[in-house]
Structures are given as structure tokens and as C-alpha cells.
Amino acid sequence: MARHLILLAVSATFGVTAHSLLNVRLLIIILIFLCFLYFSVGLSVRALSFHLVIMGIFLGAASFSDHRNKTAYHGTESQFIITFTDQPNIDGNSLKGFIGSEKGERLVLRYKITTELEQEKLSQFLRIGLSCPAEGTLQIPEKNRNENSFDYQRYLFRQGTHWIFKADSISFQECKESGNSILLSIRNLRLKGIAYIREHFPEESSGFVTALIFGDQRYIDEGDLTNYQRLGLVHLLAISGLHVSFLTGMLFYIGIRVGITRERMMMAILLFLPVYMLLSGASPSVVRSCSMAMLFFLLLLFKKRISAGAAIGSTYMALLFFRPNMLYDIGFQLSFAVTFSIIMSSSIFLQYQKKSMQLFILSSICQLAALPILLFHFFEVSLLGVFLNVLYVPLYSIILLPFSLISLLIHLLLPSFGQPLISLLNFTFVLCNKAADAASELPLASIPFGKPPFLMMLLLVISLIGLCLTWEVSFEKSKIWCGMIIVLLLLQYNLQRFSPFGEVQIIDVGQGDSILIILPFNRGNYLIDTGGQITFPIDKWAIKRKKFNTADDIIIPLLKSKGIHQLDKLILTHPDADHMGSAKELIDNFKVAEIIIGGWSEEEYRDMDLITVAREKKMKMTVLKRGDQWVAGGARFAVLSPFKQEENKNDSSIVLFTELGGVSWLLTGDMGEEGERELLRTFPQLQADILKVGHHGSKTSSSAPFLEQLQPKAALISVGKDNRYGHPHGDVIGNLEGNGIKVFRTDKDGSIIYKYYKSNSGTFRKTLP
To answer: To 5 degrees, how large is the angle CA 191–CA 192–CA 194?
Structure first.
């Protein structure tokens, strides 16, 4: 029964997927699956027909869910009655989170807090179920503006959310309770619990305790959370079957010990689990683990038993039928993939006598099960994580999780006795986090493989299934599949070395510049500028927990998605924050072979943190000026500027000329009209097919004489959407279009990508439609 339910769950997955992704590739995969059922599993034609019916039913469920997912707003409304339906998130001077409107529609709230006093009042005042009048504007959520980046608009749509409500004012003095249901009481109890932990536990451990007990990771230090993610340990901080098993087991044991009958304890646990689901945030992993536990205890109450495989198959199909869009949630995917692999491979690791070996095999199986999902979404995996899980899983399950619960309960009842326990718990978390921080710096901590193409993903999944099926029978027979997985991973890791395609990409970093150049066959990976934000002094209370950084949030994920393991050159055109403001974070978290700066700018860089980090890492530093050049992969890169000390540092920008993909490129940094005139005097025959417009299209660049001599066919403008400077200037756009030049701009097009084959011509494409 368990095997058939799991196979039906696969068919259900195909049905949901077909609604949004019905193409030739999916049809090929479905055909392979049906052939597997017929030839390997031995199902009859009638059984295959039943699988096709299941696909149709779940296709219908997904279609119905999508049909209901409509908005009642037009985008012109300005007055609302908003209800806080989820935990309000106060982060520095920002109030954000999910809210409900008077039309019953879910919105994303964005509200700017103006004073520290207002922040304190809101922290004490806001709770779930509060309804308040508000005025503001509705905005459509952003799509992904860079290749392979997170699509926020699609993410919200799959949660039934179509708008961001940017509130200008919220009348908090007119707020009213929208009701006093049990559901609201439980969710507000969760808020109080989180607030209690934040108030009474030290900062180093409060975020971890909150994550373990209430499933909220937002208060964990950003650096610590990044380390756990890189090492493949972040699953320990998500409430899952481990937590549910511990809690239900503890409650059942205590109940039996105090004289409660088994039947009554099972009924009590069945009542407790939905409450705990809400208390812990109802994430996909929580819903999955609680649903499986409820099914187990419900059947046990009626003297029935169900295998773990049947339980996970039934739970999966039930959740997918009622909420088809959960399929696209990463937490849902990882939770079911890992749990499924543990259940299906129990006979494998139980073959080994030593507990340490069992843990290692179990950790390896879980990492392999998560491998395709991690590569598809995050483009990297941690080989070190296999070994670290052997240490951290028992540490969290046997010590830190129970210790956190006991410390909280004792502190609630007897604060004076609970405080020493909290101090000891904090000390343990600090040691664990220091160890994770040290481990994250090791070579195998995080390995970027790039986003696998369709065929690679298909072969990898088939190989993993083959490994599990044969390993259960004989480890010797599974070696072929092990070898195939290793070959596929090695091929994926080196995919860029075999690629004949080159690329020039204007990365959308907002109001700034960043250009990625990838030469064919991995003969050179260059990044020209890193973007960055101009920062202003801000009060301590207004500082957000997580600060946006173009290197960490845009550039490094893009590089990893491309399978780039190091940058051969990081070229900083000039020392403006919007061009090199994120350079320090980039070299801190990504391997860079050489940093290049322009001549006569050395003094401006000298005292920057960037230089300090570069020296610590013993990076090569090169100063370029007019006349310098280098050749790589058959392409010559010539430096046309700077040639002297300039009063205006924009005119001291590094200007590069090169030929890539059958066209010539002039990349001008922030060079203005004076620099353009000097360039024309020095190079009177200069022409280029593609012009990277200087200074984000400001009025001080791209003069008419410059464009007339250069005669570009296309112009690229890196500029922030709705920027405060009014870039690009209307006169510049007029000059470009008046000369018949095709204009690409990141504020309207997102990242702009020119892809070419070897040295032949290529094509432009935009990220935004």
C-alpha cells in the first residue's frame, strides 16, 4: 500500500505541475514515469489509467485554485480597513507583514515608522486581529529583475497575494478588535511567547530559541543564519518531525506516568497538535509533520496501524489537493523530499551496527535527497554538511531543543531558577555558532555548481532514485549509480569550462553600475563595478536587522547561478559608492583573483575597508591607465582612460574598449562630456557598436558629437527604477533615439544580457518582458 500511495503522489505532482508548466519536457518526464510503472513496477494498463486519472484530478484542483486566485482591487484605491492577520514585523523603522483587507484579500503591508517612540508603542500595541483605518497606495510586486533571481511577484501570487499596500498613514488610535476567536488567541499567544524570549534570553541565543520553539528565524543573527545555510544545517532551525516527535513523545510519557489512560492521551495529543501547528507558525514542514502525527494517532486510537510510507504519501496528496501551490514552496519540497528519503531508506542505514555510522549514512541520504532542490534554487551545496550533520543533529535533538523548552518553562514558572539554565544554554549556542562560523570558512563548506539545465536535473534525479533502489538490495550494485552521480556533479561543476557561449550582462543593481563579462570556455570572468548604495547616518533604533547589499543579495547569487567559482578580474572604474560600494562584501564572500583600479585614484582607495580586506587575503592589486591592455580568450581589452589626474572623479573612470561576440563595446563608467571630448580628440577614429552610456544617462554625458562619431547601434543604461536623480535625462534619450540607436535600460528592462557563440554574433535579451 505504501509503495502505491507514494507512486500516486508522484502522479499527483505531475498533475499540479502540468497546470503551470505543461510543455514537451514535462510530457517526456511523464512518459518516462509511466514506462517505469509498466516495465519496472509491473503495473497493468488499468492501474496506469488510474494514475492518469489522478493526474487529471490534481490538474483540476490546481486549475480551480488558480481560478479562485483573483484580486478584487484595481490599484487606484487609497482608503482601506486593514486587519493584522499575521505576526506584525517591526524591523528598524519599518513595519511590514501580511494583512487582510475589508474585502477579505491578503496584502503585503509596508509602513515607515517615523520616531523611536512610535516604534516602542507599536511593539507593545500591535497584535493579530487588530483592524485599523489606513490610507496609502497599492503597488504591484516586483518580478525578478535579474537572471535566476527570486521572483517575488510569483511567490506572492502563489500565496494568493496580488498587491503591496504602501501605507502613508495608519490610524492606530481608531483600531478595533476584529474578533476574539480561539484561532486569534493562539496566534497572539505565539506573539507573546516570542516577545518573552526576546526580552529574557540573551541576544546570542534568543533567535535560536525562538526558531526552535516557535518556528520564527527572523531574529537569528544574519551572519549565523548564513553560516547554517551554507553548511546545510539550517533545517535544524525549522520545526519538523524531530520537534513534533519529541513533544508528542514527552507529552505521552508524562501523561501515562501521571495515570492518564493511553486512549485519553492520544485524544489529548490530537487536540494539542493543531494548536502546536499554529503556535509554531504553520510552515510547510510544521504542517507536514503535524499532519502525519495526527494521522498516526487517529488510526492508533481506532486500533489501526499505518506504515510511515503510507502516512507520508497520504499527507502529501491531501495537502497538495487542498493547497496545490504549496508544491512550489521550497520548505514544502525539502521537508517531503528529506522525510521521504528517511522513510524509504530506513532498511539501508539500519544495516549498520554502529550508531555513528548510521548517522553518517542517514545524513548522506538526506543530503542526496535535498541535492536537486538545493541546486535548482540555491545553485550550491555543502559537502562538509554531511559530516557536520552527524554532529549537529544529535546535538540539537538531544540537547539544545529539550534544553530550550525546559529553560523557557522553568523561567516562566520560577525565573530565579530558570536564569542559570538560560545562561548555560546561551553558552552552548555561542560555542555551536563559533564552530559553525569556523567551519563555513573551510574549502568544502559551500561549493557553487550553478543552476543545472533540464537534462542534468533529469539525469541527476534518475540517478538518485536508482541509487536508493539498488542500495537497499546491495551496496555493490549501487556503486554504478554512485559513480554516475559523481560524474554528473563533476560535469555540472565544470560546465562553464565546456561552454562555447560568452556573455555580457548589465546587472540590475538599482541606481549604480555592475557589468559581468563571461568569456567562452571559462577563459575569463570579469566584473566591472559592484553597484552599492549611498548610505546616510541613521539612528540606532531605525537600523534594520538585515541590510540590503548588492553583492550579497544580487551579484554573488547570480555568479553562483552561472557556475562561476572565481572572478579573474574585479574592475572598479572609480571610487563612487554606486560603483564600488559593495566591493568589500564581494571579496569577503567570493573568490577574486585580481582587483583593478584606475590610475591617479590610489589615494582615494587607500583608507577603504576594501583595501584592508584585499591585503588580508593577499589579493593582487593592479593600477591601469591609458595604453594598458590584456588579451584573454581571443578578445583584447584596451584601456582608453584615465590618462591624468582629474578634478572630477567621474572623468577619471576606467574606460574600456573591446570586441566580444562579433561587435565592439565601449564601457565608459561615469565619464562625462569633458571626458568624451578628450576621448574624441585622442581617438578621432573611435567607433563602437555598443555603448554603455556614461553616468546612468545623466545630462552631463552622451553628448551629440560623441554619439555622432561613435555611431553605436545600441546603448545600455544602468539606472535605478524611479531614482531620485531623474536619470536617464530626457535629452539623452532624445539624442540616442534621434540617432537611431536602440536603447536598453535596466529600470525598464531589468538586467540586459548579450549572449554569443564563440566569436560569432549574438543576441540581446531582457529579463523583464
So the answer is: 65
Give dist(CA 490, CA 534) in Å, integer. Answer: 41
Residue with cell 559581468: 516
What is the DSSP-derived secondary structure letter of residue 412? H
Dump the DSSP string for 79-146: EEEEEE-S--EEETTEEEEEEE-TTS-EEEEEEE---HHHHHHHHHH--TTEEEEEEEEEEPPPPP-S
Residue type, 145: R
Q: Which residue has the cell 559551500?
A: 446
Task: Give the tens place of pLDDT for each residue, 512-570.
Answer: 999 999 999 999 999 999 999 877 788 889 988 888 899 999 999 999 999 999 999 99
- Please provide residue 222's backbone torsions phi and psi, each rounded to the nearest 5 degrees: -60, -40
Contact at 8 Å (CB) between 563 and 490? no
717 conformational bin, left if phi > 0, alpha if psi -120 to 50, beta if neither: beta
Q: What is the mean pLDDT of residues 237-249?
A: 81
Q: Tell me: the pLDDT tens digits for 693-737?
A: 999 999 988 899 999 999 999 999 999 998 988 999 999 999 999
The CA distances from residue 465 to 51, 501, 734, in Å, are: 19, 32, 58
Helix (H) or strand (E) holding 112: strand 106-112
b/e per residue 355-386 (b: at least 16 CB within 10 A): eeebbbbbbbbbbbbbbbebbeebbbbbebbb
Q: Tell me, what amino acid is at 599?
A: G
- The C-alpha atoms of residue 13 and residue 11 are separated, in whole angstroms, by 5
Cell of 711: 555611431
- Write the single-letter amino acid at 672: G
674: Cα within 13 Å, side-chain hemisphere? 9
Angstrom distance (rounded) from CA 655 to CA 642? 7
pLDDT digits (tens, 9 = 90+) for 377-425: 999 999 898 889 889 988 988 899 889 999 999 999 999 999 999 999 9
Beta 447-448 vs 176-177: how paired, if at all?
unpaired
User: What per-residue confidence (pLDDT) applies to 1?
Assistant: 62
The DSSP string of 729-761 is: PHHHHHHHHHTT-EEEEHHHH-SEEEEEETTS-
Dihedral angle computed from the Cα positions of residues 19, 24, 25 and 30, in that order, rounded to the nearest 10 degrees: 70
Of 441, 435, 434, nearest to 204 by C-alpha is 434
Interior angle at CA 584, CA 580 and CA 587, nearest 5? 110
Given a contact cutoff of 8 angstroms between Cβ atoms, the answer to whether 335 and 312 are in contact is: no
**What pLDDT sits at residue 97?**
92
As a whole number of angstroms, the distance between CA 47 and CA 3 comes to 13
Nearest CA to 222 out of 544, 561, 590, 441 is that of 544
DSSP β-bridge partners for residue 305: none
Grid cell of 667 as nine digits: 564601457
Distance CA 635, CA 631 (A): 6
Give the Cα separation of 391 and 355 in Å (integer): 12
Angle in degrees, 0-180, between the axes of helices 45-68 and 24-35, rounded to the nearest 10: 150
Of the candidates 171, 212, 215, 157, which has an alpha carbon nearest to the alpha carbon of residue 79?
171
Distances (CA, A) of 173 to 91, 125, 170, 425: 21, 10, 9, 41
The mean pLDDT of the chain is 91
Which positions ≥6 away from 652 have C-beta within 8 Å?
574, 598, 600, 601, 641, 642, 645, 646
Q: Which amino acid is at 492?
A: Q
pTM, two decimal places: 0.92
Q: What is the pLDDT of residue 465?
A: 86
CA dihedral 609, 614, 618, 621 (to 10 degrees): -120
**What's the alpha-carbon Rg for the chain, to the nearest Å?**
29
CA–CA gap between residue 616 and residue 34 (Å, rounded) = 57
Identify the weakest region by mean pLDDT among 103-117, 262-276, 508-522.
262-276
pLDDT at 536: 76
Tens of pLDDT along 117-145? 999 999 988 999 999 999 999 999 999 99
